[in-house]
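Lab manual, section 2.4: Encoding a predicted structure.

Procedure: take the sequence of the chain (277 residues), apply the prediction step described in section 2.3, and record the output as structure tokens. A sample record is shown.
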Amino acid sequence: MKLTLFGTRGSVGRAGVETVRYGGDTSSALVMDGAGECLLLDAGSGISHVEDHLSDDVRRLDILLSHLHMDHIQGLGFFRPLFDPDVEVHLWGPASPTMGLAERLARYLSPPLFPVRLRELPGVVLHDIVPGRFEVGPFVVVADLISHPGPTLGFRIEHDGVSIAYLSDHEPALGVDFPGPEKWTSGYDLAVGADLLVHDAQYTVAEYPSRAGWGHSSFEQCLAFARHVGARSLVTFHHDPGHTDELLDRLHDEASQKGLPFGLIPGTAGKSIDVGP
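Recorded output:
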């Protein structure tokens, strides 16, 4: 499988500089297998760059939404395949005890927030996800609830003996002695032994205490989680929009000098990663 990152920021922001290697777009990524089958992860503003990587004859697209916070769905209304009657777009999102996925998404895809209503989009199929295992094309997907405000899912994607764990917005350290027992660690079962782990690394160690409970991890907590689950490689993700490239480079350089038991890959916009067994 190959993972390509298109949006890696926690919210749209340029951190006060002209270019941002770590991404000015919000969360979106693309998983592809060797045959060109694809699966999209989240629909932040970065999804607008996905179209350049899709074949002209694509007739079905599947988008897994980890949750419905605006930075993870704001790209939907600008994703051209949703308006193409020849393309069937399946939107998969977390089930809620209060209302269905269609009703919740329609709050954004409707006036006054957007001029086109969700029900007017051709070929859109909605799926409410409950925790468990299911198949999407050639991919086996395992979904489970993780620690983040509101119904939020982490995903494990398996294909041809390779696994990618995607926990974009995640706070496993909330309310526990972290890292602690496996059964008390949010997201552990999704990420254990993953060939590639994509994980929230939004805050610095100094920033986290004043933001505890907001649903995100510090850089050090991200590293600790990857070590705890025994991931082969880690991609840092969901960077704070106020963090400059220089700060993020420094955090990665300092971490790399600690002799990590996994490969550390900075989550920069446009990066493609081949994931092998």
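Check your result against the sample. The first strand starts at residue 2 and ends at 7.
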